[in-house]
Amino acid sequence: MKNSIRLQWLSHFKALSLFMIILFCTATGYSQNEISISGKITDSNSLSLPGANVLVKGTKTVTTTDFDGNFSIKAPSNGVLVISFIGYQSKEIAINSQKNITVKLTEEAAKLNEIVVVGYGTQKKGDLTSAVAHVTREDFVQAPVKDVGQLLQGKVAGLTVTSSSGNPDSGSSIFLRGTSSISNPTPPLILIDGIPGGLKDFAPEDIETIDILKDGSAAAIYGTRANNGVLLITTKKGSKKDMKPEISFQQTTSTQTIVKSPNFLTAAEYRDAIKRGIIPAASDKGASTNWIDEITQGNISTTYDLSIRGGNSKTNYYGSVNYRAFEGIMMGSDNNSLYTNININHKMFDDKLQVTFGMNNQDNVLNVNSVGNSFNGVIYRNALIANPTAPVLKPEGANYAGDYYQSFAIFVNPVADLKNSEGERKTHRTRSNLGFIFKPIDGLTFNLSMGQVSSNTTRGYYENKFHSSNLLGGLNGYANKGSEEFVDRTLDFTTQYEKTFGSGHHITGLLGYSYFETEYENSSQYAYNFATDYFTYNNMGAATNFGPTGKLTYLNGAPFATSYKNSYNLIGGFARLNYDYNGKYLLSGTIRREGSSKFIGSDNPWGTFWAVSGGWRLDREEFLKNVTWLNSLKIRAGYGITGAAPGGYYLGLSQLGLSGVNNSFYYNGNFVQTLSPFQNPNPGLTWEEKKETNLGLDFGLFNSRLTGTVDVYKRRTDGLLFNFPVPQPPNLVGTTFANAGVMDNKGIEVSLGYNVIQNANVTWNAQINGSYNENKFVSFSDDPRYKSANDYADFGSTGEPIQQSTHRLQIGQPVGNFYGFKVVDITDQGKWVYDDLNKDGKITNDDRQVLGNGIPKYNLAFNNSVKYKNLDFTVTMRGAFDYQILNFDRMFYEQNGNVERNRLKSALDPVFGKAVLTESEKYNSYYIENGNYWKIDNIVLGYTFKGNTFKFFDSFRIYGSTLNTFLFTKYKGLDPELSPEGVTPGNDYRDKYPTTRTYTLGISATF
């Protein structure tokens, strides 16, 4: 099935590729007489500029000046040369048949003129008054990443991007400036070309820039969706300048290995433990099996990307086809996607009206081995704990069901569960947007943008009668089939007026209206006991649905079919006013009034969110003009209020629902569910509000070779949503969802960039990003109606058989504290000795204490990009510091209680050098470790062939790369890089898909 899908998609890809090549070949071309041109590039003081770029406009013909600033190039006699150099204004020089040209460049802090995307518009980077980070495709992680978020790893101070699973279906986790919610942790708002979306909506190869609105003054214009920051993603577009059509092709081939496997006993070591009397002799089953090897596979992943772009000042276009076939390192976890994308821009009516259109389609097919999900983590767990002396297949003639050896009382055969199940999830997603930009007079712009995102998913999963769950349940096959659909619709209308008046006064005013609505529906059905496995999940009506007793029953406490539908909308009006005087004094103010149907039943469905910020460009002051080493210096200050809505729907209303199966009753041959209340009304429900102050400094020194940004922030989140206990009666339910909690975050972010070397043959650019964040939970409630019985609440779970919370959220303490018993020693009999905190001679729950914290306080990244002639080399390094991790593998597998199951080798080592542990699994401080790590993450080495090296290409590049390359840490687990989200950070769960190291070979070409 997998191969047929791949062949079908490859045929589609080839057909689309052929179409785009034909389109290119039929495009109008031109040829002109070429002449040889030589010249020299200098600065304003006539000093040579080695390494300056000289480009023939509208082509890919480019050269650089030598050590003395000289260059030579071939170009059309009536063409144009574009001269550029870091720290200087670019110039366009008409050739007019000249054969010798000397050009002087004027110094400038070029980075300040970069166009940065902000809320509902753009600004020059030098005019920003808020904390905004700008990342271009040249700075992205250069490897076959799983989604757009991974492009940003280590690139932005204060933005933590983690990808802690090797599962091809998993995505990146994005965390900005600390925890801001305790019941509804959400990622930053993601807008792709102005339309809400996700990190997997586009192929990473189609992304041009990503702008991150980090502080409240930048994000407040997005109101209730901006509490955790905003990512503004811009996709590639056609050229706004005249150019011939350009076709680009990229292809990568990758393979993955597990970064680190837990160190369990081999069959030989297991038998040695039997000799030592630790494991019973009857546990030796006579075989030697590496169970991890049995469930993993050799893997080759490939990506193909073909794009075409071109156009002129009137009409431009960009189109692409992208096929991604990712083979997981675990069997049954392959993931294949096909993206098609097109963007068209056209101007008319003397350029007064611009029409933009974009459409992106994604088709995804994912292998699954669990209901509705991807890889089943329990399979990985069973492979770890399986007896390494047990065989995969049953011994000849033994009385075991199916072909696989099973020992249900001890472990479940993971290979059997993989082979005796099959499943697939298919998703088709379409994004479309249409925009009109009308400029009737100078300075006045009307912008109407409409977008829709729709997604349809179907899923199916089947277990035959030899699957462990059916063998244990006495069932003859189990099938589950479902579907889900959602559609988002967006409309934004803005009016902007820009005016310069008087002596250096400049204003830009913006008024806007925004409407967003979403609908989501889901249906699922299951059935069991089939006469044949042939139809799997595609013939649900063939099931008898009778349990082992011959009676109609429920399975796992769920009904045979479920369905539901949710929808909500969001309406907002907003305004922004920017003012600057002579480019030196900058002011900005925004306000947004917004309401949501999520608050139906509430007295406060509307919220007001506003911000103000200012900047002072000191480098433009007279008293600094003669400081030759200073190119730019700006201080910023901003204050903004953003909001967050709850994740649920209609939370202000009292709601009734059907009871679970445990509360149903059996009547006349059927189970009957009862109707009961599950939510109290709360007319006072409203938004969480985050109030943030940010102070910033931007600078450029030594011809802007050294640039930097420093931000200091403090944010308070008021009205945190939480389920508070309430008395019954008068309340129908024992808890009410209400706004009451308060949380603080404060921190520092530093970003430095330095052009270490810049000459004709060698360039070396280095960047350092660092951040510090400190969090404190201030209070649960200052509302007398909602008071917690304690000043704390416990969260997290270890799972069976320990069944204990792992974290405590307590007033005056930071979010993410581990809470439990502290180990101080071990007895000669291998029993734990705990800290008797209250000195009462007994170990009770009162002796539990803070054992660490799972959120890193410090994050650091160091990025380097080196070019020598046509050779390029980049390295991305990053790390996190001052935090702890609960090592679930050690907690569960570093013990000898389950005598036949496999265990970590360290389980046989004496604890503290005294005695081997004899207790069963326990949660305590012994398994909480320092999580500090440093990764040499992305390494890329490439070579670009330019000019006439290849007849049919303008440029051709080959490269090799690695991702997640080297890890330096004292953590004993597999990978200390964990998402810091939520109130239970630092839990390194035992069932997670192992992290992987990726090796890639790739080519890219333009023609």
Automatic annotation (TrEMBL):
Annotated ranges, domain TonB-dependent receptor-like beta-barrel: 420-868
Similarity-based family: Belongs to the TonB-dependent receptor family.
Keyword field: Cell outer membrane, Membrane, TonB box, Transmembrane, Transmembrane beta strand, Transport
Taxonomic source organism: Flavobacterium potami
Major localization listed first in the record, in broad terms: membrane
Membrane topology: Multi-pass membrane protein
GO CC aspect terms: cell outer membrane
Cited PROSITE patterns: TONB_DEPENDENT_REC_3 (PS52016)
Domain of life per record: Bacteria
Subcellular location: Cell outer membrane
Record carries keyword Membrane: yes
Residue ranges of domain TonB-dependent receptor plug in the record: 125-230
NCBIfam families: OMP_RagA_SusC, SusC_RagA_signa
Name used for this protein in its record: SusC/RagA family TonB-linked outer membrane protein
Presence of the UniProt keyword Membrane in the record: yes
Pfam families the record matches: CarbopepD_reg_2, Plug, TonB_dep_Rec_b-barrel
